[in-house]
Amino acid sequence: MPRTENAASFFVATASAETENEPDGADARHPELAMLEGDMPEDLFAAIKAERELLDAQRVALAERSAEIDLAHAMLATETARLADLKLEVEALLERASLEHVADVERLVALYSNMKPRDAAAIMNDLDLEVMVTVLGTMPERNAAPILAAINPVRARALSLILLERAKFPGDRRLNEIRLD
Question: Taking the CA of residue 140 as centre, how many other CA atoms within 13 Å lie in the half-sphere pointing to its CB?
Fold first, then answer.
């Protein structure tokens, strides 16, 4: 039995000596290394220790990256919500602008419909062709016909062609052939 006591005290002494040489409680983090230390060559032990330190550093880097990704997701969700709110606001503004445009066209149609055809034609001869098309195209035929008859014949022909072509699909339209000369 004395030999067993010597062997036990040898391992305890070796473990105690190695613990004193370990920096900042390495035994506490990796107790299995402290138990195996006496059986391994120093360079293998150093390689394992370096590998563990590398893995710890990688864990920290992954945790930081994960936090960055979580932050990016939160920022993306915030921006998505903000853009959805802006989209709703823009859609509401476009709807309001469209309603106001329709109301303006209806008002112009009513104004020109209540004028004498010659007076309306005199004004329309100087109007932008797009405005003229919009007003006369919206106006009931009964009111538009006398005005169209009083408009400059070249502009009346162009207006007639535009009204005919706008009912076609965009690819089938031949608006570039319309001349105001």
Answer: 6
Which amino acid is residue 181, in one-letter code?
D
25: left (phi over 0), alpha (psi -120 to 50) or beta: left
What are the C-alpha distances in Å from 122 to residues 137, 150, 159? 17, 8, 15
Summarised one tens digit per residue, pLDDT across range 69-111 is 999 999 999 999 999 999 999 999 999 999 999 999 999 999 9
Pick from 130, 132, 174, 178: which is nearest to 151 by CA? 132
For the whole model, what pTM was predicted? 0.52
Decide if 173 contacts 165 (C-beta within 8 A).
yes
Pair 163, 137: CB distance under 8 Å: yes
Interior/surface letters 44-70, b for 16+ CB within 10 angstroms, e for the rest: ebeeeeeeeeeeeeeeeeeeeeeeeee
Is 112 within 8 Å of 147 (Cβ atoms)?
yes
For 137-167, how does the pLDDT look when each residue is reduced to its tens digit (9 = 90+)?
Answer: 899 999 999 999 999 999 999 888 888 887 7
